[in-house]
Design goal:
The protein is mostly helical. 78% of the residues lie in helices and 0% in strands. The longest helix has 27 residues. The termini are far apart. The relative contact order is 0.11. The mean pLDDT is 91.
Length: 196
């Protein structure tokens, strides 16, 4: 007869192995990039077997996709923490969310994973799906709330979200290369102000 806690302990081991793989892969992808990272390096860094890697992920691309999803989720959480949306202050929340985004993207490894390797490995269409499921919904919701409250003028919401998202990504790339984040935030603030 099996002890009652064995299924739980198996589940904990499974989660620990998956987490170790994601941590190791994230570190290597951030440092070396996707192309220069091998699966043997990942399993070595995670302290697991190659079989464990392929038990959890179909291949290196699937593992990279899981890392990307975690990165997008972390960025969305930082934006949400930064943007305190109170009634009558939706525009301010959008501006604070800009700061949260650039703060979250201050990690050069994250920029490499999300903005450089992500489109090359997964393709823009897949990244857009991941973005919509995580952080893009935050921007879209903020813009929609600001329009509903009359804080910004009504514009096509999807197009506005796509274009502002592209601006944020370009700012993050520029900041990762040494640009002053305050200069980019000043421009983003001015763009939000121009939507009134």
């Amino acid at each position: 007869m099996q002890p009652e806690n064995e299924p739980r302990s198996n589940k904990l081991r499974t989660e620990a192995t998956r987490s170790a793989l994601l941590r190791a892969a994230r570190g290597l992808f951030a440092e070396k990039g996707y192309a220069e990272t091998s699966t043997p390096e990942i399993v070595r860094a995670a302290g697991v077997t190659r079989g464990a890697l392929y038990h959890h992920f179909e291949d290196k691309v699937a593992l990279f996709r899981a890392v990307i999803v975690e990165e997008y989720t972390a960025v969305a959480e930082e934006i949400t923490r930064s943007a305190d949306a109170r009634p009558g202050a939706f525009l301010d929340a959008l501006q604070q969310g800009s700061r949260g985004y650039l703060g979250a993207m201050a990690d050069r490894g994250r920029v490499r994973i999300m903005l450089l390797d992500g489109p090359a490995v997964l393709g823009q269409a897949e990244l857009d799906r991941i973005d919509r499921a995580t952080s893009a919904s935050t921007l879209r919701r903020g813009l929609s709330d600001a329009m509903e409250a009359g804080e910004i003028r009504r514009l096509p919401l999807k197009a506005l979200t796509v274009q502002l998202s592209a601006l944020f990504d370009r700012a993050a790339l520029a900041v990762s290369e040494g640009d002053d984040p305050e200069e980019h935030l000043a421009v983003l603030d001015a763009i939000f102000a121009s939507l009134k």
